[in-house]
Write a structure and sequence with these properties.
The structure is a homodimer.
Chain A lengths: L2 H7 L7 H12 L6 E7 L14 E2 L3 H10 L4 H8 L12 H10 L6 E4 L5 E2 L6 E6 H32 L3 E4 L10 H11 L3 E2 L2 H6 L10 H9 L4 H11 L5 E3 L5 H18 L6 E4 L4 H14 L6 E4 L5 H14 L7 H7 E5 L1 H4 L10 E8 L4 E3 L16 E8 L4 E8 L9 E5 L7 E5 L3 E6 L2 E5 L2 E2 L6 H13 L3 H4 L8 E4 L1 H15 L1
Parallel strand pairs in A: 6-7, 6-11, 8-9, 9-10, 10-11, 15-21
Antiparallel strand pairs in A: 1-5, 1-12, 2-4, 3-5, 3-19, 12-13, 14-15, 14-18, 16-17, 19-20
Amino acid sequence: MRPEDRRTAEGILFTDQYQLSMAQLYFRQGLHERPAQFDHFFRRYPDYGIHEAGYCVSAGLEWLIDWMREARFRDEDLEHLRAQRDRAGGRLFADDFLAYLRRAGGFDAISLRAIPEGRVVHPSVPLTIVRGPLAMAQILETALLNQLNYQTLIATKAARIREASRAAMVLEFGLRRGQDRGANAGTRAALIGGADYTSNVGLSSTLGLPPKGTHAHALVQVFLSLGQSELDAFRAYAEVYPDDCLLLVDTINTLESGVPNAIRVFEELRAQGHHPAGIRLDSGDLAYLAIQSALMLDRAGFPEVAIVLSSDLDELVIWQIQTQIAQEAPRYGADADAIIRRLVYGVGTRLVTSHGEGALGGVYKLVAMHDGSAWRPAIKLADTPAKMTNPGLKAAWRIYDARGFATADLITLEDEDPAQAERLTLRHPDDYSRHRTFERASIAGIEPLLVEVLREGRMLIEQPSLEAMRERRLRDVERLDAGVRRIVNPHIYHVSLSERLWDLKQDLLAQLQG
Amino acid sequence: MRPEDRRTAEGILFTDQYQLSMAQLYFRQGLHERPAQFDHFFRRYPDYGIHEAGYCVSAGLEWLIDWMREARFRDEDLEHLRAQRDRAGGRLFADDFLAYLRRAGGFDAISLRAIPEGRVVHPSVPLTIVRGPLAMAQILETALLNQLNYQTLIATKAARIREASRAAMVLEFGLRRGQDRGANAGTRAALIGGADYTSNVGLSSTLGLPPKGTHAHALVQVFLSLGQSELDAFRAYAEVYPDDCLLLVDTINTLESGVPNAIRVFEELRAQGHHPAGIRLDSGDLAYLAIQSALMLDRAGFPEVAIVLSSDLDELVIWQIQTQIAQEAPRYGADADAIIRRLVYGVGTRLVTSHGEGALGGVYKLVAMHDGSAWRPAIKLADTPAKMTNPGLKAAWRIYDARGFATADLITLEDEDPAQAERLTLRHPDDYSRHRTFERASIAGIEPLLVEVLREGRMLIEQPSLEAMRERRLRDVERLDAGVRRIVNPHIYHVSLSERLWDLKQDLLAQLQG
């Protein structure tokens, strides 16, 4: 895309046409500056086909805020809108509306509360609550969903890969398989959700994290095409990177050529006082090759060098590799645990595309309108009770049981404080017969989940460091039941409504359906 | 992302670390300016799980070229590289190498041939051939794959949705489900591959195409929350957009509320001399609701207004909807064909994420190195013959049979001209026993597929218009056998090697394996 087009396509017009059609209608009705409140939430965990998530990890907020602070209606943008025609050839957007957009400028009047990035999050709980003038809050929808849905999807996938990888290092390699520059958002979310490092040089550099990567098959091919050998290529690599020598060993034949040549070079490095870093396996039966490579490396006195695995890895493949090593290693007299401990996972395509479920179905729903004197709750009807939205101005809480584990998320009305209640009744969101009651004494803690981020465009928080977001994620994941963390067939975490919210919802449904 | 970080993360450091590690090694070996040639190709069509593509549609080239012309090593980029350390604490990238990158600047020395955007393409055929100094051609890999893989994936999915939609209008709605700003690349590719319009305001505006969209459920909710009705919301819409009145009818109840209210408003519009545009169905049994809505609209004298369908559509869902309408409409005395003809498909998530296969596995492989006096072919070995690369400097051709249909793509050495041959032997790429022979007289045409785009950084072509790319796609798809166009279980299109290329490949394999 040409730079001038990028300013148009990535600015405030990074939105769907209907947001602008509706904004003009609100303007015409005099509703455009009425305060409105929208909730952003997702309805179900990602379902990857044969496995599904038991929790998500929120991400994307900082970049959304950065975008909101930059995005403004420029003259060029308004020209594009001025040029639009209806089917009768008339102007679609009138001058007075365009003048309003020019005046409104951007998202300076928007207030936003959000669950911070890196936190464990669940369906139906508002991740982001937007309050502001109806027209601009409406226009924000597309960019908000775009940023928060994708990064939350990828942070979630990364958390699953982290879970499957146990304590091993996970490297994100997906840049070439992402959607244009959007791949950077995938890298960022992967680092929040569970990847330790990335191969993405630019993004990693902006985060102050060293990018990771050594060489591709092309290096060995270059040497072969010039009449030299794999060993020559490895030696050249070791000469330039004696302290970072990690060799890709599957260009010709892993066990007959790659690993023996790597070991020769490692021996030469050792003789010079260097510590070789490892080998990378990128094709074939990775579990079998890891065992055999480990045996060869051990015999040569390199029990400490890493074995990096790559090639269409995801949480199930990693689990399978570990299982196979555990079963097969003893047959070769190898220590399965020691092999698993030296593995590093390079995860590309299946992380950046969230293999099996390529989108998080997060939505942005009107929950309240101000009528000039008071807030009026809004609801979205649907065929199934589970798809009805939760109306009104709300708050969200996490309840910890006596063990200190998260036992439920509770959605309440904004003016409720469950921490003050003697007894808490948690209602199932759409089944009246199901509820749980807690005595206050059985609850170790009740934590508000939403943080005030923007008040009429003004930032109220400092953006957290990557490290801080990762710590939140670690802390939250550790306080989940093992059943919820399971990568296949996880327990369903409870998300409940307060009795007052339940009653409001039923009242509104009865009104609208009656 | 902050603007200054975007310049870093979206510039020349939008690459994988190993490209830079290898580049420094080539520099150290004096190979960095040796001419090298890389082919970009994909190995198999997208496989969506229960259905797979029989052809792809190429896209992404223009944006890649735009990126290549902008991307340069700036001082800030070199500072990031200078800061990288190896495990022993030493500098990873030496000053002389960084000075070389500064001098090299960007991709000014790169030459590139490519199959133009919008053309039908097949596995193993080089879509892009890059020739240039080894170091910079290596560094280009990541961005090239990122741009061309994703856009080709989406243009392909859009072509399938186009195929399933027959002559109906297809609207792209996926902006909120893409990967950050990368969603714009999805929109562009969708428009090349088969979508008629998009809801994406910014991108559509840069292409000179009117964006499409009317209103969301939120509009009706706003009116309901303020004590007004769906009918009030529809009337407000009709007042602002009397000539573009397309109403979303499923906010309360499609057949009992939405469609009757829409018809009332349409009648009011008609009385004022306007032509209502249509209704949109976004939930429920879309085929059933389309039939019932069509009947109601027909009875009210609106047989011409469109019925827009949205909600997780893809090529299979569209096919199923048409099949159900064809079977079910007659039972209600409705004309199935007339209903199908008035449908418009709004396709979002499943198009922009290429539902079922979220990445195209395009690769970038070294095929030749210049040794100072001559080109030396390079090959990549692999466990299976199908994964071996085709070595050497090559050309690609499409062969049309007597009917004018594409019957095979042929990969040859660069100095071969199959158009001059009396007889053509087409070899299966990895099975010696399989080949086809054509007499020249049985061939209606032999067309070179690759076009010279960049010669040492200089553009040799004008970028085609969207219209021109769409015409190429239409023309190419029309010259495919019906079996290849099938959306489920397509015929395998033939991709063949010339005898000379086959022989070269076998010689190299024998050398390397012997």
